[in-house]
Amino acid sequence: MHELEKLSQAGLIDLFYGDESRVSSEGYVPYGWQFPHEDVAIYVEKGHWVNVWGLISRQNECHWATTEENINGRFIMEQLDSLSFAIKKETFVVLDNASVHRAKLFQELLPIWQERGLFLFFLPTYSPHLTIAETLWRKLKMEWLAPEDYLEKDSLQYAVNRCMANIGDHLKISFSLFNAN
C-alpha cells in the first residue's frame, strides 16, 4: 500500500478507498452531556435508513451511490464497473475483506477491469484503521448530518445525498499527509 500511496502522490495513478455504511434513523450519538435527572431525547421516524457506497481519495474526490436496499456484491460490482468506464489513468481501489468485496462476480470481472485500468487492492483482515473511507463515514454521521436530518425518511435521504454530493466542494476532509519517503 505504501507504493500505491507514493504513486498517487506523484500523480501517476488514482487511488481510492472504498467501503459501505448504513445511516440509520436512530442517528449516531457516540457521546452526550446532560444535567443529572434531565431527560434528553431526539424524536425520529423509526425504521428507515440509507445505505451508502463510497470511494474517496486523499484529494477528496468521491464516487458514491445510495440505496434503501442492502448493499450486496452485485451493487458494488455495478458501481466499480461504472467507474471502470470513467477512469482516465490507472486507478486502484483499496477495499477491506468484507464478503461483499470478495463476491464471485468480482473475480469474473477482475480481468476486464484490469484491461480498463481498474485494480483492486485488499487490506489485511481486521484492519479498518488502514482505510480513509472509515473517516468519511465518521465525518458524515458525526459532523455533516444534523440531528433534524434524522427526523423523517425523506429528510435523511436528502441530507445524506446532499452531503455526499458536496464532498470535495463544500465538505472536505483533511487527511493526514502520507509520508512517501
Description:
- By secondary structure, the protein is of the alpha/beta class.
- It has a single domain (2-27, 41-165), classed as Nucleotidyltransferase, domain 5.
- Helix content is 33%, strand content 19%.
- It has five helices and five strands.
- The chain has a five-stranded mixed β-sheet, with helices on both faces.
- The chain is globular.
- 23% of the residues are buried.
Question: What's this entry about, in short?
Answer:
With about 180 residues, the chain is an alpha/beta fold. It contains 5 helices and 5 strands; from the N terminus they run αβββαβαβαα.
Which short descriptors sum up this protein?
181 residues, 5 strands, Nucleotidyltransferase, domain 5, 33% helix, 5 helices, five-stranded mixed sheet
> Which percent range fits the helix content?
25-40%
Beginning-to-end CA distance, first to last residue = 13 Å
- The name of the CATH architecture is 2-Layer Sandwich
Number of helices: 5
| CATH topology call | Nucleotidyltransferase, domain 5
The CATH superfamily title: Ribonuclease H-like superfamily/Ribonuclease H
Which H/E pattern describes the elements? HEEEHEHEHH
Record the SSE blueprint.
Layout: H1 2-9, E1 14-24, E2 49-56, E3 62-67, H2 73-86, E4 91-95, H3 104-116, E5 118-122, H4 133-144, H5 153-165
Parallel strand pairs: 1-4, 4-5
Antiparallel strand pairs: 1-2, 2-3
Helix pairs in contact: 2-3
